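Archive maintenance. Older records in this collection stored only the sequence; we are now back-filling the structure field for every entry so that each record is complete. The fields below show one back-filled record exactly as it appears after the update. Entries are processed alphabetically, and Enoyl-CoA hydratase is next in the queue.

ARCHIVE ENTRY
Title: Enoyl-CoA hydratase
Organism field: Streptomyces gancidicus BKS 13-15
Length field: 244
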Amino acid sequence: MTLIGRSRTRGVETLSLDAPERRNALSAALVADLAAALTDAGKDTGVRAVVLTHTGNTFSAGADLRDPPAPETLVDLLRQIVELPKPVLARVTGHVRAGGLGLLAACDIAVASHAATFAFTEVRIGVAPAVISLPLLPRTDPRALARYYLTGERLDTAEATRIGLLTAAADDVDEVLAPILDGLRRAAPEALAETKRLLTARVLETFDRDADALTALSARLFASAPAREGMTAFLERRDPEWVV
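Back-filled structure field:
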């Protein structure tokens, strides 16, 4: 059974993260299913753009601590979104945490409802936002990221928009997305692909330069004693031992 819902309207392929009972956490299975769906959309000449959305009240809670994808697999997924020859738009009506923010940053356009919240929670379980930094660092405000990476504080949609994590926020995300999708439907497919290459060149330079080092960092941290304590504490709904 696939963990990705698929539908299409006038050339726009909508892919929905569909594991609401796990808060759409990025498990190895979900990442594999999403990669397969993106591959199909990228090859399909009938697809003009892709909308990435979700079921349930959480876009993605980050890595599935019980069945996490390998760091290099997550790198491949993020790069696939950035390199897809079709614009990818995030449609968010729920909360986004940790690795889910990597998906958001990899998308070309991201729109969220005012009910959404965001947080880089990695430091609170003993790891770092390593792999997801590949699309995040080139696209968001570095001073703001310093604060939110280091503290794990929660952001609302106004702050997420200010720092470049979101394109826009609204009470009705579909009202905002409608004219954007109409514009994409009016654009020549080849022109869209070339324009996207212009916009993503700096992001891909970051992947080329830093992916190996950040993949190794992620693997090392997730295998560390602090991470084991942090993840155990999270699953047991208690503070980890380092909280003072």
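Update note: The two ends are 44 Å apart (CA to CA). Residues 1-172+189-244 form a domain with the 2-enoyl-CoA Hydratase; Chain A, domain 1 fold (CATH 3.90.226.10).
Entry marked complete.
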